[in-house]
Each structure stands twice: as structure tokens, then as C-alpha cells.
Design goal:
This protein has about 280 residues and is α/β, with parallel strands linked by helices. It has 2 domains: about 60 residues, Helicase, Ruva Protein, domain 3, CATH 1.10.8; about 180 residues, Vaccinia Virus protein VP39 (Rossmann fold, 3-Layer(aba) Sandwich), CATH 3.40.50. About 35% of the residues lie in helices and about 20% in strands. It contains 11 helices and 9 strands. The strands form 2 sheets. It has a 7-stranded mixed β-sheet, with helices on both faces. A two-stranded antiparallel sheet has the order 1-2. A hairpin with a 2-residue loop joins strand 1 and strand 2. Helix 1 crosses helix 2. The chain starts with a helix and ends in an 8-residue tail after the last strand. The relative contact order is 0.11.
């Protein structure tokens, strides 16, 4: 044996304080809980329990990975999103809290069918399916590896029977029309990549981050093609970078969308653009 659980937390905090960890105490508890195989909220209750030496060694290795820049979600293999835990790793973009703004906008209006373009971990599509048990959806990605992660999450969260996963370059392999189309596409411009935090730039898939252009390539494709895949009065909702609202809103209007609006996140930064196809009266 080697000290207590509380001693283990202190040892990990020391390692993490020498890194770029934004919250060494919280991350130390997460990493030690993962090494112990217990829920993070158990760490305080177990604080005075003895900690096996092998467990502390394993936890130190996890902390060293974090100190080297690896996202903590990749280390523990999961990320909370809209009240559910999703498996994530280096094959997919780490779901961000800001993306929950897109979910909130989507859930304001009824929908029976939806399409998620560039699904990655499946966080958006699976959340929509879980929140609307009567809905069915299609989720696409160009990466086979990302689709494997999305499939794992869909099975784990009980929505696989209502979510069809398709390998597709945006709309290339998509058929039919939907009530709702959503996407969180790569929107970082090539010349902005160097300014990203190392844990993002070095550990997440480049194709999920940037178009290697001006950051607007995907929006041009989506705005132009979405009308052909939406029912009348259907909605298109996309996540954006905080400086892209006006440009993406114009693309939607130019493609015939009505009631286009830019929605801010909780930090008051532009985060989502919403547009509705003309047609029948809005679903209420």
C-alpha cells in the first residue's frame, strides 16, 4: 500500500500543476477515479482509504499523458454532453459544451426525421434521437473511424435502431428529405490552426477542425444543397465560429431560407445559425 486516496489526489495535482491543466484538482480526481474504476464523486468519500501502489502508478501515467497535452476526455475515454456520457478518442472531435446550444435550438421545434452531417462521435445525432424517442435520423461522416465511434455510442445509448449511419462526403450519399438538418462542420480557417491550444491542434482529427481554407467551405456546400433535402418548412441549423454569423446567415438567405437568425451561446458569442425553408405553416 502507498498512502491514502487523498494522498494520491495530491500527487496528481502536483503533476498537473506543471502542465496547462485549467483545473488540476478536478482533473486529478477524474484521473484517479478512472484508475481506481470508481465514479469521480466517490473520491471524496474514499479519501482516507488506502490506495494500492499499482493504482497510483497507473494514475501517475494518466496524469503524465495529460501533462503532455492529451485531452482528458481521450485519457478517460468519455465526455459528458447534454446529460449523457459519450465515448471519445483521437478518432473524433471532442464534443464541446457550446454545441449544446445547437441541440437546444433543434428541440424548440417538433421533427420526425433529421440528418446530421459530419457526425463524428455521434453526440448531436444521438442526443436528438434520445431526446425525441419518436424521431428517426441519418448521420453521416467521411471517416470510417468516426462512424465506428458513433456506432459504439448509438448502441451504448440505446438509439441504434433509429439512427442510420452513412459514409458520405456531405450530401453525396444522402437521399430523401428531412424535417431537420444539423451540422457542426470544420470551421477553423487554415491560418487560425496554429493559434489553437495544443491539446486540440495535436490530438483531434484535423479534418474535423479545418477545411484547410477560409473555414467556410462546408457552409457553402450545406447551404446550397440543404434545400433539396428538406421538407417544406424544414429547418437547417449549423454551429459556427464566433466571427462567422453574418457570412453563414447570408449564405442561407441566398439559398432561399427564411427567418434566418444567428443565436449566441451562454458566453454571448455567435454560435448557431438557424434557417427555415418556406412552405407550409410552421409546425407548432
Amino acid at each position: 500500500m502507498t498512502g491514502t486516496v487523498n494522498d494520491g489526489v495530491s500527487a496528481l495535482i502536483t503533476i498537473l500543476r506543471e502542465s496547462a491543466s485549467p483545473d488540476p484538482a478536478r482533473e486529478a480526481r477524474l484521473l484517479l477515479a478512472h484508475a481506481m474504476g470508481v465514479a469521480p464523486d466517490r473520491i471524496t468519500l474514499l479519501a482516507q482509504d488506502s490506495l494500492p501502489a499499482a493504482t497510483l502508478i497507473a494514475a501517475r501515467k494518466l496524469a503524465a499523458r495529460r501533462a503532455a497535452g492529451a485531452p482528458i476526455s481521450h485519457i478517460i475515454g468519455r465526455r459528458a454532453f447534454y446529460g449523457r456520457d459519450f465515448h471519445v478518442d483521437a478518432r473524433v472531435l471532442d464534443p464541446r459544451p457550446e454545441t449544446e446550444c445547437l441541440i437546444a435550438e433543434a428541440l424548440r421545434t417538433p421533427f420526425a426525421t433529421f440528418l446530421d452531417l459530419g457526425t463524428g462521435s455521434g453526440a448531436i445525432a444521438i442526443t436528438l434521437a434520445a431526446e425525441r424517442p419518436e424521431a428517426t435520423g441519418v448521420a453521416t461522416d467521411l471517416s470510417d473511424q468516426a462512424l465506428d465511434v458513433a456506432r459504439q455510442n448509438a448502441n451504448a445509448l440505446g438509439v441504434a435502431a433509429r439512427l442510420h449511419l452513412v459514409k458520405s462526403d456531405w450530401f453525396a450519399a444522402v437521399t430523401g428529405r428531412f424535417d431537420l438538418i444539423v451540422s457542426n462542420p470544420p470551421y477553423i480557417a487554415a491560418d487560425e490552426m496554429a493559434s489553437l491550444q495544443p491539446q486540440v491542434r495535436l490530438f483531434e482529427p484535423r479534418m474535423a477542425l479545418t477545411d484547410d481554407g477560409d473555414g467556410l467551405t462546408a457552409y457553402r456546400i450545406i447551404a446550397a444543397a440543404a434545400p433539396g433535402h428538406l421538407h417544406s418548412d424544414g429547418q437547417l441549423i449549423v454551429e459556427i465560429g464566433p466571427t462567422q454569423g453574418a457570412s453563414v446567415a447570408k449564405m442561407m438567405r441566398d439559398s432561399g431560407f427564411m427567418r434566418v437568425q444567428v443565436v449566441p451561446d451562454l458566453d454571448h458569442r455567435d454560435r448557431v445559425v438557424v434557417g427555415r425553408m418556406p412552405g407550409a405553416a410552421a409546425l407548432t
